[in-house]
């Protein structure tokens, strides 16, 4: 089955700096890659996603890149703010080609933005 | 538009008992997936229901089961509870594929 690895497990940055979280997946049939942010005691919230027919997607300070050949995808957060502090999860699924909504998650990255 | 609603929010059960958790998806969403979240294992997929049929299943023992009703509401049942079943159980709803939105979760503690 699919396996998703996520690095780093913890990331500490200064306010205003950029943060990058990287994931790799094992199943070349995966075609949908969402990122979730989970604050302490709250639900995971979808912050951005990318499909396999796209190499990059941006939404304000957040961007995601996908390299299908290398089976890598990354989350980039620019101009980090204290409210960006949370655990971030990457995930992969084959949902676009009838694989349903089975998400395989990475192990999470604890991002801390320091003042 | 109301979000995904899970009940109850908290549960304490004794080993050997069984438990039923409920999930009401976003109106119009036909897919409901269940996940177990623990500090050690992270977020793990349990199963997915779409239009009352189980569409996907994760690698959990048969003690974990689920079902979906005609109004897309879903229930998850765990029988013969073990201490290791203590976790946050999350459900997620989707229109059909992609873009899964999570509920607040049910925190299950087995003592």
Describe this structure in words.
- The complex is a heterodimer of chains A (115) and B (111).
- The model of chain A has no long low-confidence stretch (mean pLDDT 94).
- By secondary structure, chain A is an all-beta fold.
- By secondary structure, chain B is mainly beta.
- Chains A and B meet through strand 4, strand 5 and strand 10 of A and strand 4, strand 5, strand 9 and strand 10 of B.
Give a brief rundown of this model:
The complex is a heterodimer of chains A (115) and B (111). Chain A has 115 residues and is mainly β.
Mean pLDDT of chain A: 94
Shape of chain B: globular
Query: What's the mean pLDDT score of chain B?
Result: 94
Provide the succession of SSEs of chain B: EEEEEEEEEEE
Question: Helix- and strand-based class of chain B?
Answer: mainly beta
State Rg of chain B: 13 Å
Q: What separation lies between the terminal Cα atoms of chain B?
A: 37 Å
Instruction: Compute the CA-based radius of gyration of chain A.
Output: 14 Å
List keywords for this structure.
heterodimer; A: 115 residues; mainly beta; 6-stranded mixed sheet; 5-stranded antiparallel sheet; 0% helix; globular; B: 111 residues; 7-stranded mixed sheet; 4-stranded antiparallel sheet; 11 strands
Question: What's the helix and strand layout?
Answer:
The complex is a heterodimer of chains A (115) and B (111).
Chain A lengths: L3 E4 L2 E5 L4 E7 L6 E7 L6 E7 L4 E4 L2 E6 L4 E6 L8 E7 L11 E2 L3 E6 L1
Parallel strand pairs in A: 2-11
Antiparallel strand pairs in A: 1-3, 3-8, 4-5, 4-9, 6-7, 7-8, 9-10, 9-11
Chain B lengths: L4 E3 L2 E4 L5 E6 L6 E8 L3 E9 L2 E5 L6 E5 L5 E5 L8 E8 L6 E2 L3 E5 L1
Parallel strand pairs in B: 2-11
Antiparallel strand pairs in B: 1-3, 3-8, 4-5, 4-9, 5-6, 7-8, 9-10, 9-11
């Amino acid at each position: 089955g699919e396996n998703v690895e996520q690095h780093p497990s913890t990331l500490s940055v200064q306010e205003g700096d950029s943060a990058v979280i990287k994931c790799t997946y094992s199943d070349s049939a995966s075609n949908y890659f969402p990122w979730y942010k989970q604050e302490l005691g709250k639900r995971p919230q979808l912050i951005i996603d990318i499909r396999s027919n796209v190499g990059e997607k941006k939404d304000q300070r957040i961007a995601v890149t996908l390299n299908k050949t290398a089976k890598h995808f990354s989350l980039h957060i620019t101009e980090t703010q204290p409210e960006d502090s949370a655990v971030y999860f990457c995930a992969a699924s084959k949902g676009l080609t009838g694989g349903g909504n089975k998400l395989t998650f990475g192990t999470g990255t604890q991002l801390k933005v320091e003042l | 538009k109301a979000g995904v609603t899970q009940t109850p929010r908290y549960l304490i059960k004794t080993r050997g008992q069984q438990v039923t958790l409920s999930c009401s998806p976003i109106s119009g969403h036909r897919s409901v997936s269940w996940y177990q979240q623990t500090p050690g294992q992270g977020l793990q997929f349990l199963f997915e229901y779409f239009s009352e049929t189980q569409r996907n299943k994760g690698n959990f023992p048969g003690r974990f089961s689920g079902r979906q009703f005609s109004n897309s509401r879903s229930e998850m049942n765990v029988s013969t509870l073990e201490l290791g079943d203590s976790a946050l159980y999350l459900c997620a709803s989707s229109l059909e594929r992609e873009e899964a939105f999570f509920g607040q979760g049910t925190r299950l503690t087995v003592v």
